[in-house]
Amino acid sequence: MSRNKYEEYTYIDYDNIYTYPSTNILINKFNINSLEELKNKEYTLVASKILELYLQPILVNSIEDIYKIHNFLFSDIYWWAGQCRKVNISKNNKPFIPIQSFHTAENYINSLISNYHKNANTKEKITNDLADILDNLNYFHPFREGNGRTQREVIRVLAMMKNYEAIINIGADDNIYNLYMDGTVYSDKSKLKQLFNIILKKL
Q: What global pTM score does this model have?
């Protein structure tokens, strides 16, 4: 199976809040000015942090815990780790939630997480709720970079808190990659439910 193709993200960042002037290279704590070198450095650091979270997870009970996860993963490389983006983002001509609506988005994510903890007591309900949380968290897209890795860890932890495993391994499995990307990019919850029907396993 081949991997589906998706357009790059588009950012409106006229003031270079996050990038070095006249580049698309994110300002970073190592002052790396090569896009490829920064990508490799970021991947190595974050991969190590993800392994740490497997041993000592940050439990997810609210949006604040999602911010903590992002901060833990990216604070070694970016000054804005754990903070909401200050620029608007779109992908495949689909805009994510504008920054002016972040307070509403936070409240809604909190309500989804709360309802999940209270009411998701069967595999079918867990599947449906995780698909809903993932879809809305992706639409929120609160961070300038690292949304995917953060949301995959959030989903893993939420499933774990219901004694299930839900590892979204997009690196090794093309089918998982396509279901995850189609589901999040196009807000297709049927694809996300297919994804969870495959990966959700009782611990």
A: 0.95
